[in-house]
Amino acid sequence: MRDLFTTGQVAQICEISAMTVIRYCDSGKIKAFKSPVTSVRRIPRDELIRFMKSYDIPLERLEAYEKIRVFVADDEPSQIEVVQRALEKMKGSFQVESSTSGYDAVIRIGSFRPDLVVLDLIMPNVDGFEVCRAIRTVPETGDAKILVITGYPTPENIEKAKQAGADDWLEKPLRIQPFRDKVASLLKVSPGE
Question: In three state form, how does the secondary structure of 88-102 look?
Fold first, then answer.
């Protein structure tokens, strides 16, 4: 659970523009403080909740925002199911979206803004390397963690994936416990059972 939010995050949660949030901060409707190092406004959680309640903004939006967003891109639907089952056994609340196409993944990842992308390297048309590079070039997704999975874990493929922006990798077929351990390490959450 997050303790502080940026104006952009508050804008996304409340479904208003970031400039509106900044104006609300400047006028005192939202109590915020500026980081002494970066001068970026930070809004404490309790202040965000107070603001949302006072303007009848549903608190469910905050709950949905705080779910860990995971996007799974794999051309094998069975591997997507394995990932979903593994996440269900972990502690934490996950929102999962998936795609069996690298091209579709690139488009959907931009609007979904995942915290973690589980990405098959070898897919037809747009492969995982290209998806990885695309994720890293977009500011909205650039800080997402990327866990690549591959049935071809050659040193060359692993190095190429890391150069494209992958944070870690696992061999296919996925084994549940090693997958959960990697996810827990990347996201700093408990692996569960």
Answer: HCCCCCEEEEEECCH
Q: Is pTM, for the whole model, over 0.85? A: no
pLDDT one-digit tens code per residue, 75-89: 999 999 999 999 988
What does the alpha-carbon distance between residue 30 and residue 75 come to, in Å, rounded to a whole number?
A: 45
Complete domains list, the chain, with CATH: 4-64 (1.10.1660.10), 67-187 (3.40.50.2300)
Q: Report how far apart, in Å, the C-alpha atoms of 159 and of each of 82, 133, 171 are.
A: 25, 13, 14
For the chain, the maximum distance between any two Cα atoms, rounded to a whole number of angstroms, is 57
CB count within 10 Å of CB 112 equals 20
For residue 99, the model assigns a pLDDT of 95
